[in-house]
Amino acid sequence: MRSYRHHFHAGNHADVLKHLVLMLLLEHMGKKDKAFRCIDTHAGAGRYSLAPPGPQAEWMTGIGRLWAAPKLSPDLERFRARILGLNPGGNLRTYPGSPAWAQMLCRTQDDIRLFEWHPTDHRALSGAPALRADPRVRISAADGLAGLKALLPPPSRRALVLIDPPYENATEYRAVLDTLSMALQRFPTGVYALWYPELALAAACKLPAALERLPAPWLRAHLHLRRPGPDGTGLTGSGMFVLNPPWTLAEQLTGLLADLTRLLGEGGQGGWDLRQSPENSSARS
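User: That's the sequence. What structure does it adopt?
Assistant: Structure tokens below.
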């Protein structure tokens, strides 16, 4: 199925969490001189126009709230400043997807591999002048989960893999588990970051516990921000599940998750959850 297009949801609360964690991971990867490979299995269109805002524009209750905040913590301020760099004049018109974050934070010695199989988004991605001119970037019109195997392990033996499927049907939940199991067998020391939705669906509810059984150290950061719709459905929050996380990530996220809950929670409501492998500590609010 190829009906999902991310531009309807660009800049929403899920994007803010996903891209904040991605920023922190890319910054960490860049602290060592040795090159690394950044792989994005569901790259989307790369960048998204937010103007003009309609009454249902999801970014207004996501990045729009961070944009309007008078003061942010240092990590969130750095996150906002990077987006400001794509919006000359200070008016929020463009939101960076994960390919843009990779371009901003990967270095000349690193390489970027992008998968996008929706024909419209692939045309936008491959036609973007900034990506076309970047020698670090390779773009494939393919299923990123299927294409990941050929890219592991990378020559440098360092990689960050972002997996962000649309979860259009229940088979995708099984697919991400199978893909991560395969990836850990081929390249057990890679850093793997998976975004997942908080939904009432049984497959979505079972996914976090299944991820925790994978054979690698893990960290799970989760935000609950919305009430379900009248029919009990709708995206009420989301999480990032990181395999082989940097040891500094949990400390960074503890304060950030509390800030995001305060800024993005519906009517001041919501909560956050930060868990790690059993041998590590857990935090919850």
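The chain has one domain: 6-212.
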